[in-house]
Write a structure and sequence with these properties.
19 strands, single chain, five-stranded parallel beta sheet, 7 helices, alpha/beta, about 325 residues
Length: about 325
């Protein structure tokens, strides 16, 4: 069982955590990043990335995370492949315990644990993830230009994704397991008025149908939840928009969260209510959820941690 000490302990290794690490390392804070369950975060399940600034050609999500990791290492970040399972927040320095039994002692903590997209949980969905099945229309909608797609869900996210996809796809089918939507009325009006959008009510996706070489979605099987009738729908892509779950289990009853479990930070800041604990990226952002916004808040968190440590040293 090893003990790791650092001025800045960063939990998570997606765009937010890695950007925080780059800034903290350049401030000579010698940060430690605990990579977590999914090193690289959600970007590792995003194949083609076209909206991250600085790359005129399509890049791969895993490759971008690899480059950020190398950059963070190059400027002095230490990476530990472990998963933090508990943190003692009662006193500073904060002490975190890893799944391995190692302890991590940090004068400040940057929480960048991200959020996980909720999936339908059907076997064929996983098979085609990145090959026609996506949980992010703004990330992947562009690849469905001139094609037909389906969106699953009934909340604001699903309706927003369906409307967004009309910019690219020729036809968008929204599938909802109930007979009415939960989305805001204004969004619903826009959805129902859109000539490219069709809604299929009382239905659930039973299976994603596709080809293996080259891999790609060719359709979905829908089951009417009231009658049990099965309907085949030909689509080139399926967008699952049934929400995200922020990875905040560790911070329950310690840090302030909204009703959906996202960490609450001070206005114009990444500071949480605990001294020296900052939160950035998708763990506190349920609005934008983009790699570039996560990176931006990662930068903010590192700058704020640096200021906090400097003030604490003089205090």
């Amino acid at each position: 069982m090893a003990e790791h000490r650092t001025k800045v302990l960063i939990l998570g290794s997606g765009p937010a955590g890695l950007t925080a690490a780059i800034y903290a390392a350049r401030a000579n804070l010698a940060p430690i990043v605990v990579a977590g369950m999914q090193p690289g975060g959600q970007m590792t399940i995003t194949t083609d990335v076209e909206n991250y600034p600085g790359f005129p050609d399509v890049i791969q999500g895993p490759w971008l995370m690899e480059q950020m990791t190398k950059q963070a290492e190059h400027v002095g970040t230490r990476f530990v492949h472990d998963l933090v399972t508990s943190i003692d927040f009662t006193k500073r320095p904060y002490v975190a315990t890893g799944d391995s039994g190692d302890t991590f002692i940090g004068d400040s903590i940057i929480v960048a644990t991200g959020a996980s997209a909720r999936w339908l949980g059907i076997p064929t969905e996983k098979q085609f993830q990145g090959f026609g099945v996506s949980a992010c229309a703004t990330c992947d909608g562009f690849f469905f230009r001139g094609k037909e797609v389906a969106v699953v869900g009934g909340g604001n996210t699903a309706v927003e994704e369906a409307l967004y996809l009309t910019n690219h796809a020729t036809k968008v089918t929204l599938i909802h397991r109930r007979d009415s939507l939960r989305a805001e009325k204004m969004l619903q009006q826009r959805l129902f008025a859109h000539p490219k959008i069709t809604v299929v009510w009382d239905s659930a996706v039973d299976e994603v149908v596709g080809k293996t070489a080259p891999p790609g979605v060719t359709g979905i099987k829908l089951r009417n939840v009231k009658t049990g009738a099965i309907q085949d729908l030909t689509v080139d892509g399926l967008f699952v928009a049934i929400g995200h779950t922020p990875n905040t289990e560790l911070f329950k009853n310690v840090l302030d969260m909204d009703e959906n479990g996202y960490l609450i930070t001070a206005p114009d800041s990444t500071a949480t209510k605990l001294d020296g604990v900052f939160a950035c990226g998708d763990v506190q952002d349920h609005v934008y959820r983009q790699a570039v916004t996560a990176a931006g808040t990662g930068c903010m968190a590192a700058l704020e941690a640096d200021r906090f440590l400097a003030a604490a040293a003089h205090g």
